[in-house]
Amino acid sequence: MIGIAVVGYGYWGPNLVRNISEAAGAHLVSVCDLNVDRLAAVKSRYPAVTITDDFEEVLRDPRVDAIAIATPVFTHFKLAMQAMMAGKHVFVEKPMASTTEEASRMVEEATRRRLVLAVDHTFVHTGAVRKMRELVENGLGDMYYYDSVRVNLGLFQHDVSVIWDLAVHDLSILDHVVQERPVAVSATGMSHVLGEPENIAYLTLFFESKLIAHIHVNWLAPVKVRRTLIGGSNKMVVYDDLEPSEKIKVYDKGITLNPNSQAYGEKVHQMMVGYRSGDMWAPKLDMTEALKRELDQFVECIEQNSRPITDGHAGLRVVRILEAASRSLAQRGRIIELEEARRIA
Amino acid sequence: MIGIAVVGYGYWGPNLVRNISEAAGAHLVSVCDLNVDRLAAVKSRYPAVTITDDFEEVLRDPRVDAIAIATPVFTHFKLAMQAMMAGKHVFVEKPMASTTEEASRMVEEATRRRLVLAVDHTFVHTGAVRKMRELVENGLGDMYYYDSVRVNLGLFQHDVSVIWDLAVHDLSILDHVVQERPVAVSATGMSHVLGEPENIAYLTLFFESKLIAHIHVNWLAPVKVRRTLIGGSNKMVVYDDLEPSEKIKVYDKGITLNPNSQAYGEKVHQMMVGYRSGDMWAPKLDMTEALKRELDQFVECIEQNSRPITDGHAGLRVVRILEAASRSLAQRGRIIELEEARRIA
Amino acid sequence: MIGIAVVGYGYWGPNLVRNISEAAGAHLVSVCDLNVDRLAAVKSRYPAVTITDDFEEVLRDPRVDAIAIATPVFTHFKLAMQAMMAGKHVFVEKPMASTTEEASRMVEEATRRRLVLAVDHTFVHTGAVRKMRELVENGLGDMYYYDSVRVNLGLFQHDVSVIWDLAVHDLSILDHVVQERPVAVSATGMSHVLGEPENIAYLTLFFESKLIAHIHVNWLAPVKVRRTLIGGSNKMVVYDDLEPSEKIKVYDKGITLNPNSQAYGEKVHQMMVGYRSGDMWAPKLDMTEALKRELDQFVECIEQNSRPITDGHAGLRVVRILEAASRSLAQRGRIIELEEARRIA
Amino acid sequence: MIGIAVVGYGYWGPNLVRNISEAAGAHLVSVCDLNVDRLAAVKSRYPAVTITDDFEEVLRDPRVDAIAIATPVFTHFKLAMQAMMAGKHVFVEKPMASTTEEASRMVEEATRRRLVLAVDHTFVHTGAVRKMRELVENGLGDMYYYDSVRVNLGLFQHDVSVIWDLAVHDLSILDHVVQERPVAVSATGMSHVLGEPENIAYLTLFFESKLIAHIHVNWLAPVKVRRTLIGGSNKMVVYDDLEPSEKIKVYDKGITLNPNSQAYGEKVHQMMVGYRSGDMWAPKLDMTEALKRELDQFVECIEQNSRPITDGHAGLRVVRILEAASRSLAQRGRIIELEEARRIA
């Protein structure tokens, strides 16, 4: 049994606590938060769990093998480093850190100490995203584009822009679904509240191939949209996370090209690009709660000394793009090469 | 009665011919096309109309007061200039020309000769877009963003990119609905067919105010989407052109700001940004066919020597943005100032 | 070439005229209507076609092999009988007659004279309904239910109830898709306009098997709905005619039964009925215009002396149910056996 | 503080327990269930609450002022009667009893002992249904129809038909929203599992006015639908309970009648029935959890000796219709007068 402590019992912490308390191979040892009321809530629901407002106490507790960190982003680096230095495995909320520099050091620390460092890219562990990866690997053909819209009204953050809050989901999904890595990013956006970070943003990611990815995030939309279009040379996918059951729809649609066609005048085009349209298909999805699957995997990795799917490297890749996108955003879409971003970081 | 000739009887021409033949103040004199089969189709449906494959004949015909041009974009400039030089009023398909230079000269020619030059920005004349303008002028408050998605499968053009084919609609709507003019544009996109122009593109338009506009166009999408979100400080709008009747939905939603709040730590944010959510409302729309309304207005402008809503200046503003966007697209999103674009043009 | 005359150029007549004028094996000879303006409209659009307001003239015309009847329902019987007595094949709008008695005599007349009598059950010839029949025959398993909703605002008829106007579509589809024939009908409904027939109605059809069919029709609904659910023991179908492309969705869902289970108390139920849920699938549909396909078949039947899919027998079966449903409606749902209906008719 | 015990901790009981434990004026005293595991679950979550498998103990407990009953339907009568005889107020799940006879005796007992008897018609206490009642009372005009569809896959019951399981919701909503009471019912349906009750059913309710109500319930549908259409002479409503926020849409649509029109032939109809179509409007709804509101009201009624909105009389009216509908169902739609039902009961 792996003993786990949870640090931070705010918005997401209760989900971690519930899943850990029900996990087969794990044991919820303690919960740490600075807020006394929150700790009381933990105690009334989980009487056997130790509560504390002192992180040092968690670090010293020999029953604790691993620490799950669900605190504000700017604290991730410090808490995770302290945890690892105390020999604890780490499960950290996304984004894993505020800067590429911090994320890199966390990855190095985990590597050096042979600890498991998992980043909570929850969506990657859903049935829908896992099915998308399967489709991308087998069926879609060459990747043409990945287009995601993630908009709703609220919840404005005052320390990070909408990119760090919402686009992080799309970037982590993209990182998992597509094996190719982006080489450059251009981002535009706007803040509509004086002194606050951008609440609307658009990211374009370029790749060495013809793949293009685009992410639209917005905290100020009248309707909630969670929709991704993926275009491949053989098939296309619509992923609508708000659909209760048919979240993934696969369309046997596309264009056909006839490069050998002799062509004169207007006829050229008609001979070269044809359209095909076949069946649509919504595969049945595994409906296991993503966080449960993810935590089970985290425990398994600790036991078997293996690497989780969404490990520190994945978290670092996402932070690197977030950072580059933020720089582009500040310069109205100036292209930022991700190599360049790497060098600077 | 204003005598009108139609040049070009391909995709859109038949709509012009039908509407002109039914218009109250106009008289359909002749139809000109290079294709004999198309001319035969006109004759069988409209036996009284003159058909010809010789544009010069149209120019010489004294019964013709105005010429409607529905030919490929690259021919607009030449045909329109000839028409105006022959003293004919002009109704030209969008985009009005291939370059800002051409469009400028067309506007100058019309001004010098005191001719009516109308550009067929059809959507501007729909009940939905007219209602949006009304809402923007009265009710939405300060404009925050304009976000449009116009995607579907096909029809690939081989001479112009998807921007000139699809984004032109959004730019003409935006030009009408919002009184402020954009000052810079950043565009990204990709071509997925070797040797062909971009089939997917994303445009961001910047304004002097905090307004930001974004347009997503795609010829290679598995589903058809025609959806625009408009965010204002008081209300927000969803315009879905595929809805059979409730195309415009107005949401009484938004954020409330409390700039005077004393704030420390985490509390800052919560005190500054609040959310409000009220009724949603779908106003009844005028369902008159847009092209009918537009042609009636064209005839009226000729009779009264007045300017149509979508005149050459509107057409020119749209072409200027298309041109700048194309330049940005070629440089992976490099910002193009529209003043700069103007100087170069 | 089969010469065809169209009688009645009101709501549906123009569609017949257009399709016949474009049909490969047919030749549009003449159009007959009592209204002079309508005839003028025909002439301007089809200058070569004979127009007349005298049905006798059509009957005498030796160029006319077949007559398509698109007049009000109460005239179908008389016109069709006259046409057949004059040796003409008949294509008649649905419902084919006002009573079972009339419909029976029409069928007898066609049989005796070896003429083709086709009833325009248009929906039967759509790609969607043809696909449904294919699925029912191969894949759905035992039929459990057929549930259809066909509601919208208007157009109120003053001579027939909403059953004769709207349910006729569902009954003709059901007649084609399901091979079993209903044995009894119960109908309820209401008129909300004094002195007018029912504008809302609900029909339940019983069969000898466990199949049950239900049809909801309404002229006074705020939204338009055209949706049919079909439940089978293996698969289930949703047919939504307002969907632009995915009109048919096949669900691999259902219940599993374990009749041998030993069961005590609450456990009984859980052991006997299980649920399964698999993929959803929207097959590509043939998008040929139904009326074109139907008229091509009519012409082919004349040439080859064969029977159309929607022949007089199909039309008669539908009228018999409409008549029985009307009697049940008048008695607040009293069950009407269709054998009984047959005897009375 | 009103002391409350909950009997039955199966599907719905946990919701009662949670809401009572959080209610302002109430105190959760004890939970009773025959299943030891369920009681253990209660204890671990609510350590201070008494648990017992002996209902007699609950009846004897002087701390218990009221008992909430969430056991199978066939036990409601016995448990509620025992509770009232012990002087306890009662909050009972719907349907309140298995027969009209039982429900009547429960109402009498509550009246005689001046105890509060509330029936858990949860939907009546939602923001959506409360808004519908408001609209029906003020704005819709004369009521024309109430049409509800409540279908999904599962959960088959083996002791009661789908009417008692699903239609009970619609009947309780209808009872609240419409002040007029139905006078007769016709029901049809079918069982598709040998030896099990009907899993699909259709109810038509008749009123003295021109109002007609229809309810479609089905345990074997491939998709989940929760949609009610209400037609009034002035406005019409669509209530879609699956919509996340705009559950109620009000349409300013309808027909206009001109009873004084002189009319001959076909013109009659056109002069008498016109159509009007105006704005659509989705009012903001109170999103308070219905059960919380309902339990707060129950507590208030006990304190103030007043009657809850969904009292025993409402519960009895619903059971009376369920019973009559079941009788009609067994006779393929034979009309059952509700007076007759009353006499027999």
From TrEMBL, chains A, B, C, D:
Q: What residue stretches are annotated with the GFO/IDH/MocA-like oxidoreductase domain?
A: 160-236
Q: Which residues form the Gfo/Idh/MocA-like oxidoreductase N-terminal domain?
A: 3-121
A Pfam family recorded for this sequence: GFO_IDH_MocA_C3
The GO terms this record gives for MF are:
nucleotide binding
Its recorded name reads Gfo/Idh/MocA family oxidoreductase
Q: What organism is this sequence from? A: Rhizobium leguminosarum bv. viciae
